[in-house]
Specification:
By secondary structure, this protein is of the alpha+beta class. Helices cover 34% and strands 25% of the residues. A five-stranded mixed β-sheet has the order 1-2-3-4-5, sandwiched between helices.
Amino acid sequence: MSVAIRRLGSGDIAALRDLNALYADAFDDPQTYRRDTPDDAWLTRQLDKDAIILLVAEVEGRIVGGLTAYELPKLEAARSEIYLYDLAVDARFRRRGIATALIAELQHIAADTGAWAVFVQADHVDPPAIALYTKLGVREEVLHFDLPPRPRGG
């Protein structure tokens, strides 16, 4: 099995839609990844942004894994961090090094852009993700909070 890792860019709308479908299946979350699918113009604008990093793993032209990451410029120093937001591999292709290969490519991109760190969060209820990230990096104990948007005067 030959796996090709590539970064999506302009013109990869169909591949981005396939990646979102993979996320919906892998995360068992079709509402987040398929509901209100953005139109092609929106997706084209996102694909054109250097700060949005979309990587896919393909086998015979079919997307079997992927990740979404965001470059976050810092203001306290002339550097950036990269936040690995989503990572998934089709269940039929897991345990073959695909997630590790995707992360390795992200680390190369981080080095190429001068980012000083790649960071990722994992849920306590996801032991495979925790094991993968522990193997590849340094674990920190942090808390994550979702703060809802609040309209002014509300």
